[in-house]
Amino acid sequence: MSRILMIVTGATELRLADGTSHPTGFWAEELATARRELTRAGHSVVIATPDGVTPTPDAVSLDAEQVGSQEKADDLAAYLREISGELEAAVPISSVDASEFDAVVLPGGHGPMTDLAFDPHTGRVLAAADAAGTVIAPFCHGPAALLAAKAEDGTNVFAGRRVTAFTDEEERTGGTGEKTPWWVESALRDAGLEVETAPAWSDHVVVDGNLISGQNPQSSASVAREVIEALGRGTAG
Question: For the whole model, what pTM was predicted?
Fold first, then answer.
């Protein structure tokens, strides 16, 4: 059994380009699917957030129309209630020792654009995990957190690596649109990462050694399966 760190946004709002506040949080399907698949495979999951705050699901991610059916929305809500104790007991990212974990998983929601992308503790954990060859698996908006990982010379630790993320097209057509304060795909490219995208809303995963990334909520289960396979091999690549 492996020990997995799940870094989750603690943000509840995103400041849009026009100055208005957009309610946000983690995306329910992404956190629930990843945790469910990983624990079913026999692994343990520790949830960490900035300052150890209790993470909040984006209300839209529990809307039946958004997730596809009332049954699915009800299932997600029930699962979050089931693990509410773990969410409330989230540990501060600042206290995390990356060497204690076999993988780091980062679900999205727009929240990471507010906190994780700029959090030095998240950056430290990711840099240490990458240096050790630990599996790192961000998906949807989760790859925004990779921007926080800086080398001593100020460059991004993951520069030159292959990755995918919620695309600019998906943000325009199904995210926060033209009010988006910044674009995750573009920001990753600007930081030197090689972003590989598939058609909008398709299940797409990119594996580059120990770095496993997914494009959107539709990729959640596929990312979890890749993590499980990597842990089963006992190697990241």
Answer: 0.97
